[in-house]
Amino acid sequence: MILDTFQQRGVKRFVFILSCITVLFWQKITVLHEVNSLPIIPVDTVFDLLAKTNTCLSAFAEISLLLICAYCFIIILSLYDILPGRKYLAAILFLCIVSVFTDAQTIAGSVCALIFQMFAFYNLFRTYHSAQIKSLIFTAAFFTGISIMFSFPFIIAVINLIAGIWFFSVITWRTIISMILGLLAPFVFLLYFFQLAHHDISLMLYAVENNFNNLLWGLFDFDNFSAAFMGFVFAVTLLSMLKAGKYTKTIQRMINNMFYFLFVTSAILTVLVKSMQPYGIMLFGISAAYLLTRFSQLVKHKWIAEFIVFAILAATAAYSNWAFFFH
């Protein structure tokens, strides 16, 4: 059965599954490569130049970043034994969902930003019953600040950070100060870098201003297939939330609520705010993958979960190869 294929049975099987899915995604990344933003850290431009020099190497590098994201996702789910036995399935679904959308897969900056967001979530989740709450909040905010540098629309992650602090009941004036200092710290280091390297910090200020000006409102501009795919994933994930059971551990319930919040906010951002689509798609993929995997553990009729997973896998493979032949 499909669900049994993704059971946790060692790293070798996980690597094999990811390798197979990488092959399915390879054509699309190789053919469709573009730069849609001008972040403070211009990693997109670097990948674009790399693609013009060696397309396969650029595709391999981007896929490697996606796999690192998937691995970080598994680490987060392993922190408090979230989704026992199905962590690999959640990682596969995450890769499938984000890979249908061109923006989420061809913008290297968004992928780099998401990796640092994973580090932020990891430290945020560790605040539960910790004696180092302020330090962990500072670290989580610091990684969030770095993610903003890679992809400026990730600035909305500040809202998710505040929501996480509230969900974990550690919101005090001390933790708020720690969060603010953590967010500012990467930019302070960058200011010193611009001053030492260019003797002109106005270059960085111009980059920040330019990114603010590029935060455009507008409805999503996906093609028909991508829109239909997102509608399907959103619908089945929304239905799966109705089946959600309760965790026995408090920390697991907190993390579950955090994923609910990420799912709702990311869906809204993806549809309504054009410049936030890369960020929204990434978090939409993470939260939907988590909720659908949770649903596969709870549903009585396993064939329903099997059908959903098969549909997502088949749609991803079909669209990736369709993009190769018709773009």
How would you describe this protein?
- By secondary structure, the protein is mainly α.
- The chain has one domain.
- It is built from 15 helices and no strands.
- The protein has helices spanning 2-5, 11-31, 43-53, 55-79, 87-99, 102-106, 108-125, 133-150, 157-167, 173-198, 202-213, 224-242, 250-272, 277-298, 302-326.
- The longest helix is centred in the middle third of the chain and has 26 residues, at 173-198.
- The protein is globular.
The separation of the N and C termini measures 34 Å
Number of domains: 1
Main sheet? none
Number of helices: 15
Give the ordered list of helices and strands: HHHHHHHHHHHHHHH
Strand segment count? 0
Shape label:
globular
> What is the helical fraction, as a range of percent?
over 70%
Computed Rg: 19 Å
The amount of beta strand, in percent, is: under 5%
Q: Name the quaternary structure.
A: single chain
Low-confidence runs of at least 5 consecutive residues? 31-37
- The SS-based structural class is mainly alpha
Q: Residue-averaged pLDDT, rounded?
A: 76
In short:
With 327 residues, this protein is mainly alpha-helical.
Key structural traits:
327 residues, 0% strand, 15 helices, mainly alpha
